[in-house]
Write a structure and sequence with these properties.
Lipovitellin-phosvitin complex, beta-sheet shell regions, about 10% helix, 13-stranded antiparallel beta sheet, mainly beta, about 300 residues, globular, 2 helices
Length: about 300
């Protein structure tokens, strides 16, 4: 918030004092920030990202019972506006500390391509996926979320002002169930540095979202809370880094069970570029410098 100072001259009682004092230089006007408007994402050729997500299943007191890790490489900027997935793995292990075992790639996602603006909620979009590949579908949906939240709202975001989008929206997940976004909120909170790029730092969150799943004899009714941050280049509008946290609490009933059991799953995801400008494939530095947004208001 910019603070405008109003000066009231004390004409009668202070005139002589003012004349006797040297004039002070005026303070510079507070700096204002705006995001670039009416600009498109600049794809200067293929750009790849590494997406890694770990799901933690815990009991009521926080003891981790099971972990599931997915990793994948996502590339955008391909000819004809296509994107592609490769090197997708899904591995699981019990307990909090046991190492993840080696696991083969998901063949059905190796070279999986589609148009960037494709409808990923269409009933036949995942026709090559096994019906139980829910986490793999999440990779596609989450990446679309990062790009939507980070790249499509520059014209509407104002510094430190929450922007409410998609409130009360039902999302039908074909052959899986329904997700209800109660209130998705974006907020541009400041500037940052990632991978040598000046970035807008955007927070997002959506709490108290009902989710219902019915597939393969398994039913689940739960609540989802998710949040994270997205670093978006001010020069190109490319995503330079993104995070995702989500907790799902509810009840699940597996095939053959008469009584539902409690469910508590927490997941943490990171999304970062792996292709740099000199064509050397390596994960870019995760270090960043963040400018506190409150400093802008001073």
């Amino acid at each position: 918030m910019l603070i405008k100072m109003n000066f009231i001259p004390f004409i009668v009682c202070a005139a002589s004092c003012l004349l006797a004092q040297p004039l002070r230089a005026q303070s510079p006007a507070p700096q204002t920030w705006d995001l670039p408007h009416a600009t498109a994402v600049k794809d200067a050729g293929p750009r790849s990202y590494r997406f890694s997500v770990i799901y933690y299943t815990a009991d009521r007191v926080g003891e981790i019972i099971h972990r599931q890790r997915l990793t994948a490489d996502y590339t955008r900027g391909l000819p004809n506006g296509e994107v592609e997935w490769r090197n997708v793995t899904d591995t699981q292990v019990d307990g909090a500390t046991a190492p993840f075992p080696a696991t083969p790639k998901r063949d059905y996602m190796e070279g999986f391509r589609y148009q960037l603006n494709a409808n990923t909620m269409a009933p036949d979009f995942f026709k090559s996926f096994p019906p139980t590949a829910v986490m793999e579908r999440n990779l596609v949906w989450d990446t679309g979320m990062f790009e939507l939240f980070g790249q499509n709202y520059f014209d509407q975001l104002k510094l430190n002002q929450p922007l409410h989008i998609d409130s009360g929206q039902d999302v039908a997940m074909p052959a899986i169930g329904t997700f209800h976004n109660s209130d998705v909120v974006l907020e541009w909170v400041g500037r940052s540095q990632r991978n040598g790029q000046d970035c807008a730092l955007i927070d997002y969150h959506a709490f108290f979202n009902p989710v219902s799943i019915n597939m393969g004899g398994m039913t689940m009714k739960a609540r989802s809370d998710y949040w994270g941050q997205i670093w978006v280049s001010l020069a190109t509008k490319q995503i330079e880094y993104a995070t995702l946290q989500e907790e799902v609490n509810g009840e699940i009933k597996l095939p053959g069970q008469d009584t539902p059991q409690l469910l508590d799953v927490f997941r943490i995801g990171t999304f970062e570029p792996v292709t740099v400008t000199n064509s050397v494939t390596a994960t870019t530095s995760a270090t960043s410098t963040v400018t506190n947004s409150t400093a802008v208001a001073n």
